[in-house]
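Below is a filled-in request sheet from our internal design queue. Each sheet records the structural input a requester submitted and the sequence that came back. We keep these sheets so that new team members can see what a complete request looks like end to end.

REQUESTER: design group, bay 2
PRIORITY: normal
MODE: inverse folding
CHAIN LENGTH: 335
BACKBONE (tokenized):
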């Protein structure tokens, strides 16, 4: 375990916010976590890659999860179950899986952050969510110090949602995640962008490697690289509204895009709402929305968390006034 005092958190969050931690622990084993249990019980902030947080002020104590490792738990001719240390970098695990022709997570290539955070918001991209592969999540119960294992059904996964954002919020330190991958992968190319990218490359029968490459190409074009421009991916969730509300909006805005979201509901792209509200590419001081993807709020260099939060609130107000839709933040705001 590594312990440091008065540390800038700029390198520990992809927004690049220069907040400070009075104390920072970097834990590499389950024993390290057990050792600092009182620190966690006192409300320390747990971070993986810091790619889904907005630090709105300085923080007392931060614990960075650096528990690595990869173990095969079970396999047969069809599937393989692997336990990944929660501090493993998500994209590296995707790359490793694709290299071994283990399918299931290739559509989620290039999502920043760690394996351990993936189940928290049930990460997803290009038609696939991590819940489709999760067998279980192993964690230390911060209250009791016990090691526990939660199966996928008990994780209550939803769109960018799970039990870890509700009943278990601030109560767990995730140490590893078991994923079941397929040795006979069936590719998922239903997302329009992926389909078009493959067609553009003349690929008719794509492998998981082709899908991986297509997703990397699309994302590199559309999303800002946090190393060059601070951001935390989509700042808001795509809102789900009732059919009645949607039909009312279609009357006023015939071009409004939508996806089915179960009986009686429609999902509307937040990026479209934000663009219509006049915020696409808008810069306000040190912050703004990205020029090609307004759902991504960016830090042009020296923004602090409060400035980004102020822009987010302004976007929420204008979108609400225009469409009567309340945008919900996807990024975790650290007060
Ligand atoms: P962090 O930001 O470090 O933490 C996120 C939350 O989880 C915090 O509340 C933290 O306290 C908690 N936490 C982290 N680790 C643990 C642990 N071990 N135990 C308990 N609690 C923990 N997300 C998507 O779903 N799809 C995308 O396509 C996508 N694209 C993105 C693109 C960019 C450019 C960026 C910057 C972000 C994107 N994201 C996307 C968001 C982000 O990458 C994911 O949410 C990712 O899973 C966060 O991982 P992390 O390790 O960085 O988590
Ligand atoms: N759009 C606009 N203007 C724009 C950009 C997009 O109107 O400038 C509209 C278009 O109608 C477009 C639609 O928004 O078809 C969807 O855009 P995109 O395919 O870029 O996806 P998204 O809905 O904005 C979601 C996820 C991303 C994920 C992608 C791909 C959420 C909140 N975001 O974005 O996840 O990578 O789909 O699956 O669900 C994240 O969670 O951080 C994230 C980046």
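RETURNED SEQUENCE:
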């Amino acid at each position: 375990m590594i312990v440091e005092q008065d540390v800038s958190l700029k390198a520990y969050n992809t927004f690049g916010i220069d907040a400070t931690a009075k104390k920072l622990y970097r834990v590499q084993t389950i024993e390290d976590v057990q050792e600092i249990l009182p620190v966690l019980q006192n409300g320390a902030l747990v971070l993986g890659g810091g790619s889904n947080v907005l630090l709105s002020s300085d923080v007392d104590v931060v614990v960075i999860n650096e528990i690595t490792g990869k173990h095969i738990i079970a396999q047969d001719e069809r599937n393989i179950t692997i336990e990944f240390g929660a501090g493993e970098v998500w994209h590296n695990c995707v790359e490793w899986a694709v290299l071994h022709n283990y399918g299931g997570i290739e559509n989620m290539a290039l999502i920043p952050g760690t394996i351990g955070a993936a189940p928290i918001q049930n990460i997803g991209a290009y038609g696939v969510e991590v819940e489709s592969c999760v067998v279980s999540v192993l964690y230390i119960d911060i209250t009791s110090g016990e090691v526990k294992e939660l199966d996928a059904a008990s994780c209550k996964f939803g769109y960018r949602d799970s039990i870890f954002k509700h009943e278990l919020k601030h109560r767990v330190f995730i140490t590893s995640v078991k994923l079941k991958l397929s040795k006979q992968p069936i590719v998922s190319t239903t997302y329009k962008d992926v389909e078009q990218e493959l067609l553009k490359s003349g690929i008719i029968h794509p492998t998981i490697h082709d899908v991986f490459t297509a997703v990397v190409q699309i994302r590199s074009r559309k999303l800002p690289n946090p190393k060059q421009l601070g951001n935390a991916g989509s700042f808001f969730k795509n809102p789900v509204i009732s059919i009645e509300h949607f039909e009312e909006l279609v009357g006023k805005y015939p071009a409004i895009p939508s996806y089915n979201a179960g009986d009686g509901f429609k999902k509307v792209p937040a990026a479209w709402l934000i663009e219509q509200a006049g915020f696409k590419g808008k810069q306000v001081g040190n912050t703004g929305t990205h020029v090609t993807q307004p759902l991504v709020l960016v830090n042009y260099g020296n923004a602090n968390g409060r400035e980004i939060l102020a822009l987010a609130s302004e976007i929420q107000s204008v979108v609400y006034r225009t469409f009567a839709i309340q945008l919900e933040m996807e990024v975790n705001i650290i007060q």
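SHEET NOTES:
- The first helix runs from residue 30 to 35.
- The chain has three domains: 2-65, 70-182, 230-334.
FILED BY: M.R.
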